[in-house]
Amino acid sequence: MSDARLLDMPAAALRDAIAANEAPASEPVRASFRRAAAVRAGEDGLNIVLHADEAASLRDADALPKRLSPGVGTTAERASDLALVGVPLAVKDNIATLTLPTSCASHILEGYVSPYEATAISRLRAAGAVVVCKTNMDEFAMGSSTENSAFGPTLNPLDPTRVPGGSSGGSAAAVAAGLTRIALGSETGGSVRQPAAFCGIVGVKPTYGRVSRYGLVAFASSLDQIGVFGRSVDDAALAMEVIAGRDPLDATSADLPVPRYRDAARADGGAADAPRDAAALATPLHTATREKPLNGLVVGRPKEYFPPSLDPRIAALCDRALDRFRALGAEVRDVSLPHTDLAIPVYYIVAPAEASSNLARFDGVRYGLRVEGEGLRAMYEATRSRGFGKEVTRRILLGTYVLSAGYYDAYYKKAQQVRALIADDFSSVFAAGVHVLFTPTTPTTAFPLGAKSDPYEMYLSDIFTATANLAGVPAMSQPIGAVDGLPVGGQLLAPHFREFDMFRAAYALERALGAEATA
Amino acid sequence: MAVTEQDVRHIAGLARLGVADERLPSLVGELNHILEHMAVLEKVDTKSVDATVGVGSLAMPLREDAGPQLPLARSRDAFAPAVRDGFLLVPRLATHTALGASSVDDEDSGTEDLE
Q1: Binary contact (A455, B34; C-beta < 8 A)
Q2: How far is it, in rounded angstroms, from Cα A168 to Cα A172?
Q3: Strand order of the sheet with strand A436-440?
Q4: pLDDT number for residue B55
């Protein structure tokens, strides 16, 4: 089988091909490394890959079962049993892996190899996925362009003069460049959805608590979630089925059943024959038909995400997607989330405050870099000032400031209160009968490298995505067209743990747009 | 509530970050510029709103303060720089407190010699 065939077929189809012995499990892994070399994914090129070990990846692939049990083929069986056998996987460098370093793209963790593995990685490996690389990112996931990496920026594979978005830009670029069909990223304010939009792929941020964070290096603990990238909605849904669900090693992971997200693709609306407790996390669409798979689904269009300043070409692509939703049987309803414009000020108080606490552990004693100084305190300060880059330093200072005596009430407490109002906006809209919301993912397409030198201007890249993290709701981005040859992402958001409804709308829209999604 | 150079020095100290003097003016400018945008929050009426630390009761369950040992894929010797008699060896912290310790550094000067 050719490299193009192995790497460009959907993850589920690749898994089936390997299960049917059409290719050995090591072949897609070899193909992924050949593709990485061909597109120059290393530091001398697109700078997507921070760490990779082809021999170790091939050993993992060779250790997979040679023959899969017959009868493995239904969605449920795939979800539990080698659903991803032989599928190459790219992993953001803030998720702990055993065979490759976990540096968070920071000098302070340069060379650090974790003694344990993230639960999401364990589950994907148990399903047969093979980790082929750790990907570049904004240092400690702080950024929206992957320009803040201590190891240099990642370039957008679709246009190397532009950023891939961030902070999970390396993982998004790995999928866009065809190294893998599936990648892991992490989200704190949009770090999966925004790069997915910039790279023309699918990116999912699950509900807060849906996916275990054991092994994810903490940035802002009330916001962080591991998310997935897929070349298609199905790739992302497949990976989500594998990683979602309760993990005793993460007390914040929810003890709720995981619906079969891939059933959301079915023309009858799916979920009907799922176990009752899992089906309760999907809205029944009793009137769905093959032609009108979204009959009964209410799609909200929040006006605050379509301001007069929005690029009219992006607005037009969103309108086209909303027309498709109508044609698929959905009702599109105008709604309002009145506190949306406060999300960025709230986010850039809450996230740095939590980061200033979480990053206190990098002190030169326990991990990675140590720079000696005259006395313990001088050693801390020398290590941290040498080890952290500019943006991380800025955010630690900002976070320490808003938590410090005299400013706590004015900034941090106030931000927490306004955060509650933002969450209430979503609750009210969903309580009024809206099943999913649809918005643009980002206000612009991928911008040129170096275009945003003002930190606050960069922060505004997250203007349509940070709300979901603050409210804890699931959200995803998928390609809905292009402006000047650059991809535009459309965002779906759903109530807590209702990823199934989000996937149902996403599958139907992807099918309805067809080739228009990338044109 | 404009941030001054003295404020930046103070919070850098709290955060154990060494900030060079020549970097101070630009940091003051950047932080003030960012904080200007936070001023919009002052105008929001939050008298009847409780501060939230998270996103719903589901997400913050407490667990028993017990459980299995967290699994390590490698023995401690394999990732610690030095181990003796089953203990991790760390730098002799007492030597670090000899210089520059002040009364605010109680937690530092109280550190025991662990080696």
Answers
A1: yes
A2: 6
A3: A49-51, A130-135, A88-92, A182-187, A225-230, A202-205, A475-483, A486-493, A436-440, A298-302, A331-335
A4: 67
Model confidence at A134: pLDDT above 70: yes
pLDDT score at A216: 98
Give me A114's structure tokens. 């974790």
Give me the mean pLDDT over the A52-70 stretch: 84
Q: Which amino acid is at A159?
A: D
Q: Do B101 and A410 touch (CB under 8 A)?
A: no
Contact present, A3 and A34 (Cβ < 8 Å): yes
Per the CB < 8 A criterion, the answer to whether A181 and A83 are in contact is: no
For A20, A167, A287, A314, the CA distances from A486, given in Å and listed in that order, are 38, 19, 37, 11
The answer to whether the Cβ–Cβ distance between A401 and B63 falls below 8 Å is no
Dist CA B10 CA B6 (whole Å): 6
Distance CA A41, CA A175 (A): 11
The one-letter code for the residue type at A442 is T
Which two three-digit tokens encode residue A468? 């979901």
Q: How many of the other CB atoms lie within 10 Å of CB of A331?
A: 16
A66 pLDDT more than 90? no
Question: How far, in Å, CA of A382 to CA of A392, rounded?
Answer: 15
Tell me whether residues B40 and A345 touch, CB distance under 8 A. yes
- Does any CB of chain B come closer than 8 Å to the CB of residue A380? yes
CB-CB contact of A219 with A358 (8 Å): yes
Comparing CB atoms, the residue among B49, B61, B79 nearest residue A251 is B61
Active-site residue set of A: 92, 167, 191
B2 touching chain A per CB within 8 A: no
Cis peptide before A167 (omega within 30 of 0): yes
Model-level ipTM above the cut of 0.85: yes
- Cβ neighbours of A384 in B, within 8 Å: 15-18
Phi, psi of A60 (to 5 degrees): -60, -45
**Rounded CA separation A36/A30 (Å):** 10
Single pTM value for the model:
0.93
**What are the b/e assignments for A107-123, b being 16+ CB within 10 Å?**
bbbeebbbbbbbbbbbb
Distance (Å, rounded) from C-alpha A513 to C-alpha A288? 19
User: Averaged over A203-213, what is the pLDDT?
Assistant: 97
At A79 the pLDDT is 42
